[in-house]
Design brief:
single chain, 402 residues, alpha/beta, TIM Barrel, 2 domains, three-stranded antiparallel beta sheet, binds D-gluconic acid, binds magnesium ion
Length: 402
């Protein structure tokens, strides 16, 4: 079998997605997600100009060799653009392998380790009361794990609070919109949110929270300590993780579990975090961390150190990534939880898929490969829309992390 063509499909059914389709001489094709929110066309160009020409004529069964060829062969290693492009190829090749074998991807990885993939949904509101009502809604939908975010008094907007509840889309302007951030206002408010959640709902649900990289390590230690009575499932991205050693400081002060890694693109981004047991969950996922082939390596390292997986699953990761991640989650021994932000009906129509949600769990389905396809005719009706993630400034105008 030989690869005969590769095509990049950029579409925007509610938000932008970049999808790679790899075709073969035997009529079997595979799909990979290549979406990098706000930097979509960089990955599309990388694929079209630098990768696809080098794939033609190769044996699609040689997934590992092609991965190594693209990673080592670029000379310029790592980085989100490169690793997204490699991930798209890798995912499409696993899809093809599954279709050739007529097996769902999780069977190729080693088979099912669980009956369903526990997912968490996003409850959010402009204040605590509204967030509580959203937690109730998610509990009513059967979710076992719920992430809670609320507006902060004195701040006009903050990460994680959406206008239309179910579908959160932060990349909402062609040129990045500017938000204002105050760490002290945030730190004063957040413990009140989690106290209110536990008072109203008790301890039955797993409750999660995303700090979205906004604290310093010592501030994160303080927050983790303040949240201990509410027993969070995790505190996510408490501080930016370029300095992995910084997490030692957080660990000295709190036993609140820590999840990090949605922006990681290789195992090297979390080597210290994992081997020193500075985190509890690693959030790398298929599209941003080099595909199934590389994510599997991260999970194996993590397993040695009691770190579990918690794959990123925001709406900017396409259904193709979600499908592949659910197969991965079904197999991976050290699974923790999977994020599940629902896609809009427009997105779901462009990407028909075999996976489904039921009572807090998701199931990848048994279609061969990852079970997600693209309706290209429909996709063509939704052309690319330039859109950027917001930026953040402190109240005095200094740039901060969004
Ligand atoms: C999450 C993430 C997202 C990111 C988004 C950026 O936990 O789901 O933090 O909401 O902000 O994926 O593109
Ligand atoms: Mg996050």
């Amino acid at each position: 079998m030989k690869i005969t063509a590769g095509r990049v499909i950029v579409c925007s059914p509610g938000r932008n997605f970049v999808t790679l389709r790899i075709e073969t001489d035997e009529g079997i094709d595979g799909l990979g997600d290549a979406t990098l929110n706000g930097r979509e066309l960089a990955v599309a160009t990388y694929l079209t100009e630098h990768i696809i020409p080098a794939l033609i004529g190769r044996d699609p069964a040689m997934i590992e060799d092609i991965w190594q060829y693209l990673y080592r062969g670029a000379y310029w290693r790592r980085g989100p653009v490169t690793m997204c492009a490699i991930a798209a190829v890798d995912t499409a090749l696993w899809d093809i392998k599954g279709k050739v074998a007529r097996l769902p991807l999780y069977q190729l990885l080693g088979g099912r380790s669980r009956d369903g993939v526990m997912v968490y949904g996003h409850a959010n509101g402009k204040d605590i009361d509204e967030t509580l009502d959203e937690v109730a809604r998610y509990a009513g939908l059967g979710y076992k794990a719920i992430r809670a975010q609320s507006g902060i008094p004195g701040l006009a907007s903050t990460y994680g609070v959406s206008k239309d509840r179910m579908y959160y889309e932060p990349a909402d302007a062609a040129i990045a919109s500017e938000n204002v951030w105050s760490t002290s206002k945030y730190l004063d408010h957040v413990p009140k949110l989690f106290e209110a959640i536990r008072v109203r709902f008790g301890f039955e649900h797993h409750i999660l929270h995303d700090v979205h990289h906004r604290l310093t390590p010592i501030e994160a230690g303080r927050l983790g300590k303040a949240l201990e009575p509410y027993r969070l499932f995790w505190m996510e991205d408490p501080t930016p993780a370029e300095n992995q050693e910084g997490f030692r400081l957080i660990r000295q002060h709190t036993v609140t579990p820590i999840a990090v890694g949605e922006v990681f693109n290789t195992i090297h981004d979390c080597q210290t975090l994992i081997t020193e047991q500075l985190i509890d969950f690693v959030r790398a996922t298929v599209v941003h961390a080099g595909g199934i082939t590389h994510l599997r390596r991260i999970a194996h390292l993590a397993e040695l150190y009691h770190v579990r997986t918690g794959c990123h699953g925001a709406t900017d990761l396409s259904p193709v990534c979600m499908g592949a991640a659910l197969h991965f989650d079904t197999w991976v021994p050290n699974f923790g939880v999977q994020e599940y932000m629902r896609h809009t009906p427009e997105t779901d129509a462009v990407f028909p898929h075999a996976y489904w949600y039921d009572q807090g769990y998701m199931h990848p389905g048994d279609a061969p490969g990852h079970g997600v396809v693209i309706d290209e005719k429909l996709a063509a009706k939704y052309p690319y829309q330039p859109s950027a993630l917001p930026v953040n400034r402190l109240e005095d105008g200094s740039m901060w992390n969004w």
